[in-house]
Automatic annotation (TrEMBL):
GO MF, one annotated term: phosphotransferase activity, for other substituted phosphate groups
Protein name: Glycosyl transferase family 4
Organism: Alkaliphilus oremlandii (strain OhILAs) (Clostridium oremlandii (strain OhILAs))
Cellular component GO terms, alphabetical: plasma membrane
GO biological process, one term: lipopolysaccharide biosynthetic process
Subcellular location: Cell membrane
KW Membrane (keyword) present: yes
């Protein structure tokens, strides 16, 4: 009965966040036009041809914060503890720098500095990766590897890294929003199954806030989430997963959010490898991401986005299955299978392809 009540509360929170986001997005669009947060296509990497407002992330942020605070006031399952407050302050810093970037396109180093500051705020509030459970690398019975002094830099690295992976896949209408919503729901299912009810509710709120924005963002998009949204969603997924899933004493718990966020994480990893193979700066944009390759194979924008939704669902489902793995051996087998399929797919899609190889095709 208690679990059923939690599930009902989570569904209500999801619906509230979805409604608020849906109602606020048109106002975010007006604000974007007023302050000049407009995406004007200037190169062939842009899929759109007309200027599009890009401040939709403001509606997502407001929907998340409002709903989370309301649920904290009316439900005992979410408490205004230091970790929760730290996450709210941190994401506010991210949104502020995102708004500035959506208007003025600031330097990457300033965005990185703001992300590190936000991550440090969260870490100081108590959100840290204190240990990882890797029995295969540890002979102790528990299998815990306590990070000690490394917990702070590793947590900051995780938060900043995940924050940027969502931003890097924001290349097609509805892609980042849909994939993020699916990842949030997958992690919420894991948190619910492992008794992390407050974390599950927060993730459902994030999923609802993102889903409420999606009708305006799906192809043809009326508004983009911009850095304001992509960075905020990535930050929230990173910090909430640390506070809930990764801290849970389960075998290979760190692998669960990696699988749930598999599309942005793997795509970013392959992009870094591809750029190194091409002797390009790893932060230099290119047209070699998975969605670009699918478009090259003849899929439309909508078909490409739906295909990536399917891949995200499969990886999210793998994360849920992993959280319920009956043994360490079955967990290792599942991870090995998923990694093999991901690598095989990446090779088939040419995600490691060198530029000279592409030119010959």
């Amino acid at each position: 009965m208690y679990k059923q009540n939690i599930l009902i509360i989570g569904c209500v929170a999801f619906a509230i966040a979805l409604l608020i986001s849906y109602l606020l997005t048109p106002y975010a669009k007006k604000v974007a036009y007023k302050i000049g947060a407009i995406d004007v296509p200037k190169d062939n990497r842009r899929m759109h041809k007309e200027p599009i407002p890009r401040l939709g992330g403001l509606a997502i942020y407001c929907a998340f914060v409002i709903t989370a605070l309301v649920m904290a006031l009316i439900s005992p399952n979410i408490s205004l503890n230091s970790e929760f407050i730290g996450i709210l302050i941190g994401v506010t810093v991210i949104v502020m720098i995102g708004i500035v970037d959506d208007v003025k396109q600031i330097s990457a180093k300033y965005k990185l500095a703001a992300q590190i500051l936000a991550a440090v705020i969260v870490v100081k509030s108590g959100v840290t990766i204190d240990f990882i459970n890797l029995p295969i690398f540890n002979n102790s019975e528990s299998g815990y590897v306590f990070l000690k002094a490394l917990r702070i830099p590793l947590t900051v690295f995780w938060i900043v890294g995940i924050t940027n992976t969502v931003n890097l896949i924001d290349g097609l209408d509805g892609l980042a929003a849909g994939v993020s919503a699916i990842a949030s729901l997958s992690l919420a299912a894991v948190a619910f199954n492992t008794g992390q009810y407050s974390v599950a509710i927060l993730l459902l709120i994030l999923a609802g806030a993102t889903a409420g924005f999606l009708p305006y963002n799906f192809n043809p998009a009326q508004i983009f989430m911009g850095d304001t949204g992509a960075l905020a969603i990535g930050f929230l997924l990173a910090t909430i997963s640390v506070e809930g899933v990764i801290k849970k004493a389960a075998t290979l718990a760190v692998a669960i959010p990696v699988l749930a966020l598999g599309v942005p994480i793997f795509d970013t990893t392959f992009a870094i490898i591809r750029r190194l193979l091409n002797n390009k700066p790893i932060m230099e944009a290119d047209k070699g991401h998975l969605h670009h390759r699918l478009l090259e194979h003849g899929l439309s924008q909508k078909q490409t986005v739906v295909a990536l939704y399917g891949i995200s669902m499969a990886l999210g489902g793998s994360a849920v299955i992993l959280s319920n793995a009956p043994s360490k051996q079955s967990a290792y087998l599942l991870i090995a299978t998923v990694l093999f399929l991901v690598l095989f797919g990446a090779l088939k899609m040419g995600l490691f392809r060198k530029e000279e190889e592409k030119a010959k095709i």
